[in-house]
Design a protein that fits this description.
The complex is a heterodimer. Chain A is an alpha/beta fold. In chain A, 35% of the residues lie in helices and 18% in strands. Chain A contains 19 helices and 22 strands. In chain A, the strands form 6 sheets. Chain A has a 7-stranded mixed beta sheet with strand order 3-2-4-5-7-6-12, sandwiched between helices. Chain A has a 5-stranded parallel beta sheet with strand order 14-15-16-18-17, sandwiched between helices. In chain A, strands 9-11-10-13 form a 4-stranded mixed beta sheet, sandwiched between helices. Chain A is globular, with a radius of gyration of 27 Å. In chain A, 53% of the residues are buried. By secondary structure, chain B is an alpha/beta fold. Helix content of chain B is 37%, strand content 22%. Chain B has helices at 20-33, 81-85, 107-110, 120-128, 137-143, 150-158, 167-177, 183-195; strands at 7-15, 37-42, 52-60, 73-78, 91-100, 132-135. Chain B has a 6-stranded mixed beta sheet. Classes of the chains: A alpha/beta, B alpha/beta. Strand 8 (167-172) of chain A pairs antiparallel with strand 2 (37-42) of chain B, so a sheet runs across the interface.
């Protein structure tokens, strides 16, 4: 059989394809974004779509499952919060075709706004959850998840995390087998799907019966594996936490849980009896530990030593369990003394001049989730909140209601085009309906930027690059009743400042749309074509070393120490340098410079 | 009882856009085809925005963790000097190190708030003596006509650390991962890199 190295995310898709999956929907989010792209790029047998948000993705997938197809939706951990309203009831309705919910956690918050542990959803909403640890398991567990979904008439979770989703390892490839369930909808199924109280009460019992049956199933589930070695210590673990522990304590005995919920209580009790001391190693919450302790089983070590935050690693597990006996490797250089390398807005990015303008205006900026969150970092520090998708608009309205006339001219909300369509529409509608006066700025860069260029309903293309309808943001604003809708070109700093200042001061809701501002990496929008000159350079005759241009944190601009003076005799401590390989000619720094020291150059 | 056997740990570090991912893909292909179990882990997320990038690559008879244990790196391949220094503590005392001679300033240095670390090579030599190698991958690749091939130049130099792997195995992996029009350039880049240390 053919073996290929695959990323966990790609292996999930391979598994879905082999299992006969027909429909896949998603909203991008690290570390899950590759899943839907992989479907679109390599598996034409599966319908693929970027939905405007995770809730819609789950609606789409569950609709397909009601119609008999095997279907999946994928999202990052916080995406589940958006989709939860659908999920919490889908576990009552059940499915017809298999329904797989893939949720990718981000321990250590590599790229997220919180660190929630998605295993809690399975217990909370009463559905089974599988947890693969490597790419082969990603494929195998995906396949069996569809079977479980159909056998027990329930949505099934596949929970990954960064080190599973973004880890590559060999996968054995097999063929696709089409689902045996016939496609079709039957009105007679309505009592199962119409969740009005009378039907809910019936289904409520079914849910509990389902979970009981699943608990029995878990006892013999082939991916709940006991490995008896040295019985002096027995470890219960799942996912990457199992791999880390196995790595550093290969001689101990293990119960590796492939199914995180429901738990195989008998299997756990038997394992606990067979070993002298029981250790539970899990990332984030004490999810297994709480349950196992509640079973009355004695646990030697769990969250008393294993951290309940950030991600685990082999040495963290080893140090936690060895205690004082652990010897850390010698420190040769203190990493904390080295300059950090945080991510930054790209050279030429249209967010940079916009946030510079907002900073100059002294605005309090309610932010959102996207590349523009990077504007919160020094030296720009021009974005002041980030809570969740779409939060900025709603919060700005709330803040203005609290501040009254005092808030006029001082507050605005920013969000990206993809975020606006994801969950920024309702807050804007609300601001008009409730007679607010907040200002909402849509940083339209024509794509979902941060997660790596996914299409959305405002780009005019589907995930498979077919041309489609393009949402018109001006028309949306009009339909919601926004009277003051303005366009700005963020690259014109002076004009941007004037317009934003006017709108923030108005005692009515405003919508400002960034135009002429595509993502620097979006080739089809030809982002560089809007710049007059290909590159700018520093005139050493004029540069006074005032460092004003460093305020925008452009990756192309750096400080060069060295005393000297300008042509007209102004003393300076150094000058700035523009790296011509990185400069794209956006001219923002030249607009800021008061001494005409930044001028068109040549590549 | 120990099924782990000997697992070799390779750590790659660099800055987003330097081509570390292609380099680690080449390694993974080479050792998978050579019959080993392989695992590779990297953080994507925000690397595209100029952040640092690391890849853990491991091969052996059976590999469990995709993450290398802190302090257990056998081979370090760094595409940028500061990003080499950041991980110096990860390397075993007898580990081997290849560093690309390139400085990419992080924001704190560009802004003039911190200075770029000096004498990266000397610091490494102090601890690892002759096991430290530095080459200018960009300069070698530019001579071949394309600075973009610097990552494969580095792979070529790095291949000297694995004497049991034949040149053909590296070349096969490189060709398998790159479009045909890039084959000539990158095969040359591999051999120029190999000669460089």
């Amino acid at each position: 059989m053919k073996k290929e190295i695959m990323q966990g995310n790609s292996a999930i898709v391979r598994g879905a394809w082999e299992a006969g999956c027909k429909v896949a929907a998603a909203y991008p989010g690290t570390p899950s974004s590759e899943i839907l792209k992989e479907v679109a790029d390599n598996y034409p047998d599966i319908y693929a779509e970027w939905s405007p948000n995770e809730m819609v993705a789950m609606q789409v997938a569950s609709g397909a499952a009601f119609a008999g197809a095997r279907a999946m939706c994928s999202m990052k951990h916080v995406g589940m919060n958006v989709a939860a309203d659908a999920y919490m009831t889908l576990s009552y309705t059940g499915v017809k075709g298999g329904l797989l919910i893939i949720v990718a956690d981000d321990p250590n918050v590599h790229s997220s706004q919180n660190e929630q542990d998605s295993r809690n959803w399975a217990r909370f909403g009463k559905a089974p959850m599988l947890e693969p640890s490597d790419a082969q398991e990603c494929k195998d567990f995906t396949k069996i998840a569809f079977d479980i979904s159909e056998q027990f008439d329930t949505p099934v979770f596949l929970r990954t995390e960064t080190r599973v989703a973004h880890a590559d390892s060999p996968v054995t490839l097999e063929d696709r087998v089409e689902s045996k369930i016939p496609l079709g909808l039957d009105p007679k199924d309505a009592p199962k799907y119409v969740m009005v109280p009378a039907n809910v009460r019936v289904r409520r019992k079914v849910v509990e019966e389902k979970m009981k049956k699943l608990e029995e199933y878990a006892e013999t589930f082939k991916y709940n594996v006991v490995e008896m070695n040295d019985p002096s210590v027995g470890v219960i673990a799942s996912s990457a936490a199992y791999l880390y522990t196995k790595e550093v304590f290969p001689d101990w005995s293990y119960l590796k849980l492939g199914m995180a919920w429901p738990l195989p209580k008998k299997l756990i009790a038997d394992f606990a009896k067979k070993v002298k001391k029981l250790v539970i190693v899990e990332e984030l919450d004490p999810f297994f530990e709480t349950e196992i302790r509640a079973m009355g089983i004695k646990v030697w070590h769990g969250k008393d030593v294993i951290p309940n935050m950030y991600e685990l690693s082999p040495e963290i597990v080893e140090a936690a369990l060895m205690g004082k006996k652990f010897k850390a490797p010698k420190v040769r250089v203190k990493p904390e003394d080295l300059p950090r390398r945080p991510p930054n807005l790209c050279a030429g990015c249209s967010h940079r001049p916009l946030f510079y303008a907002l900073k100059k205006l002294g605005a309090f900026v309610f932010g959102d989730i996207g590349c523009y969150t990077l504007a919160s970092a020094p030296p720009l520090q021009a974005l002041h909140t980030t809570v969740c998708m779409g939060a900025g608009g709603g919060q700005a309205h709330g803040a203005m209601k609290a501040l009254g006339q005092e808030g006029l001219g001082k507050v605005c909300a920013v969000l990206g085009d993809s975020t606006f369509l994801h969950s920024g529409l309702s807050p804007l509608m609300n601001a008009v309906y409730n007679k607010g006066n907040s200002t909402t700025i849509v940083l339209d860069n024509r794509i979902t930027g941060m997660t790596g260029h996914q299409e959305h309903p405002g780009t005019g293309f589907t995930v498979r690059q077919e041309p489609t309808n393009m949402v018109d943001y001006t028309e949306i604003g009009k339909a919601f009743g926004v009277k003051s809708i303005r366009n700005i070109d963020p690259y014109n700093i002076k004009e941007t400042m004037e317009i934003v200042k006017e709108e923030m001061a108005k005692d009515e809701p405003s919508l400002i749309l960034c135009k002429n501002s595509p993502c620097m990496m979006l080739r089809r929008a030809k982002p560089l074509e809007r710049f007059k000159n290909p590159v700018y350079a520093v005139s050493l005759d004029n540069c006074r070393g005032c460092k004003m241009c460093l305020e925008i944190n452009c990756p192309a601009i750096s400080w060069r120490e060295g005393a000297g003076e300008t042509k007209d005799g102004h003393k300076r401590k150094g000058t700035v340098y523009i790296n011509p390989d990185q400069c794209v000619g956006c001219e923002v720094c030249a607009q800021i410079c008061k001494y005409d020291a930044i001028q068109p150059g040549t590549k | 009882m120990k099924e782990n056997g000997k697992v070799t740990n390779v750590f790659l570090s660099g800055v987003g856009g330097q081509g570390t991912i292609l380099a680690s893909n080449i390694l993974a292909e080479v050792f998978l085809k050579a019959g080993y179990d392989v695992k590779k882990a990297e953080v994507h997320g925000m690397a595209q925005r100029g952040g640092d990038v690391t890849t853990h690559f491991r091969y052996g008879k059976k590999v469990y963790s995709s993450l290398i244990k802190y302090g257990d790196v056998d081979f370090l391949l760094s595409f940028e000097e500061l990003e080499a220094l950041r991980y110096i503590n990860w390397v075993k005392p007898d580990g081997k190190i290849l560093i690309n001679k390139q400085e990419i300033f992080p924001p704190a240095v560009s802004l003039g708030n911190m200075s770029y670390p000096k004498e990266v090579e000397a610091t490494f030599k102090k601890f690892f003596k002759d096991n430290v190698h530095m080459i200018d991958g960009q300069a070698i690749a530019k001579k071949l006509g394309n600075a973009q091939a610097a990552n494969v130049v580095l792979v070529g130099a790095f291949s000297n650390f694995f004497p049991n792997v034949k040149d053909e195995q590296w070349i096969d992996a490189i060709k398998g991962l790159l479009a045909a029009k890039l084959h000539d350039l990158n095969v040359k880049a591999f051999f120029e890199g190999k000669k460089a240390i």
